[in-house]
């Protein structure tokens, strides 16, 4: 099997990459078995809902020196409908795009006067799952903001750049060889339609950045630090690349 | 605080069987995995799940290391009368979570 | 160095990492022994039990499974217990559920862990003292992209 994998990797290295046309865009959901799809479809079987429950509690809790809850400013979580599908977005105060997780932490530090949550902490994932869930079935709609252009280009460049000891780019797997198999798994098109996801491999909820980190390790490249502008640029490009696809957070993936 | 989710129909006809679905936050550490320093991570699982209906036991399940993290359990019971369903999960390290849910029988 | 050699070495390394977490395995004898403990001197029949589990799973960490038993679930004729066993996890036991006529329907569902491809056996213990079973083979595929253990 190792020889076959090696052959596949060599094959990847010889092909040029091309972006996936809109009509051919396919969520990783459709590459999963029916029983894992059913787990995502049923809120009682989808373990991510345990994080959403935490998110609901946190949403209503007064936090920080300002003594304010998310609800005090934003009202019901349902008011967040359509938010997650347009992140990352440009932040005036940061002068660059920020992810949804960073936006939540910005609210904490600037509005609630509370310390930022750690990346991948239960609290941050719970709030982002709650916010993301409000955009279920909405189409991914990256903002058409000229200030994002250079960051989008940087993200695209990272996606297409070979990296790591395997000398692989994201595009070589997820575009050139999409739908083919790597060991027992179908190579997905890498559309961020369901984040944060409950990944069976992790037995936990995790962000898109954790998934990207996982890919970088697989390529034997040095992962970026959580929250690094490189990750946000890549997220930005992935959302643009998935524009128009229905959002399905919190998703379940193998 | 441990999160638990319980779903049952809001109202059921007397004599009808209905499904109860439960989901609870728990790592279900098997006790067979090696940690990063090579030593075995100690077992930490839910050992038993119990459900009573107006005080009478209707379902009990013994869990093992082979039950997935964040255990999901679904089972059935017949609607006899309106009242309270009680749920209890117990396990290693003194783990104990109790929840109740109301059922209306028409 | 030949680049493909590097890749092969890496992939071999990745395979070792995936095998690390669960070093122990229950012998197939353990499965038979565990079933025998439940049966006592009773005979194991085939039938009445439906074991619903995907024949091929992408990740053994969380595998949906449903067990249903054909039974009128009356005071006189009902399922007393459902036992589920596995062949190649470190222990042969998966679960044991105690139910009775008040269940109305002998059908339970949960998510289980499978260390590798193996046989799963579900056994129903009926109120008349008889035992019925269903078994199936489940293939657990190897994940291509696993995360390192250290986070």
Offer a concise description of the structure.
By secondary structure, chain A is mainly alpha-helical. Chain A contains ten helices and seven strands.
Task: For this entry, give a set of tags.
A: 254 residues, mainly alpha, Cytochrome Bc1 Complex, Chain D, domain 2, 2 domains, 3-stranded mixed sheet, 42% helix, globular, C: 151 residues, alpha+beta, Immunoglobulin-like, 6-stranded mixed sheet, 2 helices
Describe the 3D structure.
The complex is a heterotrimer of chains A (254), B (106) and C (151). With 254 residues, chain A is mostly helical. Chain A has two domains: 25-42 and 144-253, Cytochrome c-like domain (Cytochrome Bc1 Complex, Chain D, domain 2, Orthogonal Bundle); 48-133, Cytochrome Bc1 Complex, Chain D, domain 2 (Orthogonal Bundle), CATH 1.10.760. Chain A is built from ten helices and seven strands. Chain A has helices at residues 2-14, 34-41, 48-60, 70-74, 100-112, 122-133, 149-160, 170-176, 208-218, 229-241, and strands at residues 89-91, 96-98, 181-182, 185-186, 197-199, 204-206, 252-253. In chain A, 42% of the residues are buried. Chain B has 106 residues and is mainly β. Chain B has a single domain (4-34, 41-105), classed as Immunoglobulins (Immunoglobulin-like). In chain B, 33% of the residues are buried. The mean pLDDT of chain B is 96. In chain C, strand 5 and strand 6 (93-98) form a beta hairpin. Chain C has 151 residues and is an alpha+beta fold. In chain C, the strands form two sheets. In chain C, strands 1, 3, 5, 6, 8 and 9 form a six-stranded mixed sheet that branches. Chain C has a three-stranded antiparallel sheet with strand order 2-4-7, with no helix packed on it. At the A-B interface, helix 3 of A face strand 3 of B. Strand 5 (56-63) of chain B pairs antiparallel with strand 6 of chain C.
């Amino acid at each position: 099997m190792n020889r076959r994998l090696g052959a596949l990797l060599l094959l990847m290295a010889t092909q040029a990459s091309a972006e996936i046309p809109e009509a051919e865009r396919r969520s990783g959901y459709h590459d999963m078995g029916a029983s894992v799809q059913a787990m995502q479809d049923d809120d009682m079987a989808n373990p991510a809902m345990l994080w959403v429950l935490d998110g609901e509690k946190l949403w209503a809790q007064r936090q920080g020196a300002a003594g304010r809850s998310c609800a005090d400013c934003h009202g019901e979580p349902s008011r967040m409908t359509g938010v997650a599908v347009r992140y990352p977005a440009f932040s005036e105060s940061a002068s660059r795009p920020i992810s949804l997780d960073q936006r939540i932490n910005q609210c904490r530090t600037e509005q609630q006067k509370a310390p930022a949550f750690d990346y991948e902490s239960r609290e941050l994932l719970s709030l982002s799952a709650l916010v993301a869930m409000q955009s279920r079935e909405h189409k991914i709609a990256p903002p058409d903001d000229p200030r994002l252009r250079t960051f989008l280009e940087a993200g695209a460049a990272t996606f297409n750049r070979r990296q790591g000891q395997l000398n692989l780019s994201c595009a070589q797997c997820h575009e050139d060889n999409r739908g083919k198999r790597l060991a027992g798994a179908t190579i997905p098109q890498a559309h961020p339609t369901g984040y944060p996801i409950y990944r069976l491999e992790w037995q936990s909820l995790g962000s898109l950045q954790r998934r990207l980190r996982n890919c970088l390790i697989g390529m034997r490249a040095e992962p970026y630090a959580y929250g690094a502008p490189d990750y946000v640029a890549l997220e930005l490009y992935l959302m643009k690349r998935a524009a128009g696809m229905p959002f399905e957070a919190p998703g379940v993936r193998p | 605080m441990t999160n638990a989710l319980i779903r049952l129909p809001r109202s059921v006809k007397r004599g009808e069987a209905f499904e109860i679905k439960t989901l609870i936050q728990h790592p279900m550490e098997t006790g067979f995995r090696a940690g990063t320093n090579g030593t075995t991570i100690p077992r930490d699982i839910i050992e038993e799940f119990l459900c009573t209906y107006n005080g009478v036991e209707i379902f009990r399940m013994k869990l093992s290391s082979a039950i997935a993290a964040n255990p999901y359990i679904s089972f059935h019971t017949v609607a006899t009368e309106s009242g309270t369903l009680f749920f209890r999960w117990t396990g290693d390290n003194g783990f104990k979570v109790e929840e109740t849910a109301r059922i209306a029988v028409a | 160095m030949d680049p493909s050699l590097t890749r092969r070495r890496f992939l071999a390394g990745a395979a070792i990492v995936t095998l690390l977490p669960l070093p122990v395995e229950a012998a197939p004898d353990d499965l038979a022994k565990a079933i025998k403990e439940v049966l006592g001197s009773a005979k194991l029949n085939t039938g009445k039990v439906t074991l619903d589990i995907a024949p091929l799973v992408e990740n053994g960490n969380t595998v949906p499974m449903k067990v249903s038993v054909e039974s009128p679930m009356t005071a006189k004729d009902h399922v007393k217990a459902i036992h589920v066993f596995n062949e190649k996890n470190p222990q042969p036991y998966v679960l044991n559920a105690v139910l009775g006529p008040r269940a109305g329907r002998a059908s339970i569902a949960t998510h289980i862990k499978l260390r590798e491809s193996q046989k799963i056996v579900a056994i129903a213990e009926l109120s008349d003292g008889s035992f019925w079973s269903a078994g199936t083979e489940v293939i657990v595929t190897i994940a291509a992209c696993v995360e390192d253990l250290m986070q």
